[in-house]
Amino acid sequence: MIVTTKALYDVAYGKYALGAYNVNNMEQILGLFEGCQRARSPFILQISKGARKYAGSGMMDAMIRAAEARYPDLIFSTHLDHGDEKTCMDAIAAGTYSSVMIDASHEPFAENVASTRRVVEAAHAQGVSVEAELGKLGGVEEHIKVDEKDARLTDPDEAEAFVKETGCDSLAVAVGTSHGAYKFSGTQGLHLDRIAEIQKRLPRYPFVLHGASSVPADEVSRINAAGGALKEGAKGVNLADVGRAIPLGVTKINIDTDGRLVWTRVHREFFRDKPEGFDLRKPGDIFVEEFAKMVEERSKVLLSAGQLDTLRAALA
Ligand code: G3H
Ligand code: 13P
Ligand code: ZN
Asked: Any residues with CB less than 8 A from the CB of 35 and at least 6 apart, and which?
């Protein structure tokens, strides 16, 4: 059953976080649904502009509907990740998305507010939830390269004003993370103190953590042992910190890189060990299983595992 992210947040806030997994193909969709079924966890399926272009939006929509029919027990939202205004309007009109993200965080405050407000008006008229972003993450976001030095944490006063002025349903906050496999060096980590400050200004308001992959060290080592060339020491978000962020209002945890690492490890190891192989379904099956395992494990960390029936009762 597809519901809005707002409906999920209203039940989850402060108790657990929803894993928001980026998907691009059938195998990721199958693994995601299977992992959440095993964990009995609600979730957010998210699709970036790049994913819509890669698979074709009609193809993605059809695969999501097919997965929904195959796993009728599951409750999830379908979310456009990092949309610009035009893509958000397209997604709202398409009717497949129960939630969109307008990412105008690279714009000055006033333009970000104006753009977000236009999307909120269009989305709410169709019963679609809106996520917006304030502050700048480090790393690369959809063609906009933000120098690490300029990465700017979300300002609590601005966050309060932004939410009031736009009416968005959740806010992606910049609190030290960045997209991709290389997030932290040395003792850097999540700025939990900043999240707590923002929560004081916006109590019971859901925050979103982008760049929340954990980049497991053994995954990086296995990829490199099978011929990969990822930087050793690539470091992601500490899972214990993710747990600490939940009572501070972080209700959506974005995970893309960790799924890509699973894909890379499975395929590199498969063809290293079976150089004569060329049946794509063999590594495909392994990937679905390994991705499902990752999703199941992550649901436990996010405390969303086992919440499906309570959520269903709350939504009834
Ligand atoms: O935040 C961006 C997500 O990781 C999606 O990445 O634009 O390459 O699909 P993508
Ligand atoms: P990661 O690169 O840490 O997986 O972040 C994904 C994300 O924020 C998608 O919007
Ligand atoms: Zn993101």
From this structure: 41, 291, 292, 293, 294, 295, 296, 299
Residue pair 79/102 in contact by the 8 Å Cβ criterion? no
Q: Is 265 in the pocket of ligand 1 (CB under 6 A)?
A: no
Which candidate, 103, 117, 33, 111, places its Cα nearest to that of 68? Answer: 33
Domains and CATH numbers, the chain: 5-315 (3.20.20.70)
Choose, from 61, 81, 256, 258, the residue flagged as catalytic: 81
Which ligand 2 atom sits closest to the C-alpha of 209? 8
Instruction: Indicate if 10 belongs to the active site.
Output: no
Q: Report the run of H or E that residue 157 belongs to, with start and end.
A: helix 156-166
The angle at the Cα of 279, spanning 286 to 219, to the nearest 5 degrees, equals 35
In this structure, which ligand is nearest to the CA of 23? Answer: 1
Question: Which of 109, 234, 107, 223 has the alpha carbon at shortest distance from 161?
Answer: 109
Cβ neighbours of 257 (radius 10 Å): 22
Atom of ligand 2 nearest to the CA of 82: 10
3-state secondary structure at position 80: strand
Q: What is the pLDDT of residues 257-313, one digit of tens each?
A: 999 999 999 999 999 999 999 999 999 999 999 999 999 999 999 999 999 999 999
Ligand 2 centroid to Cα of residue 316, in Å, is 32
Q: Which amino acid is at 12?
A: A
Residue identifier of the C-alpha nearest atom 8 of ligand 1: 50
What stretch of H or E contains 308? Answer: helix 308-315
Query: Which is the closest atom of ligand 1 to the Cα of 180?
Result: 4
pLDDT band at 146 (very low <50, low <70, confident <90, very high): low
Q: Is 50 in the pocket of ligand 1 (CB under 6 A)?
A: yes
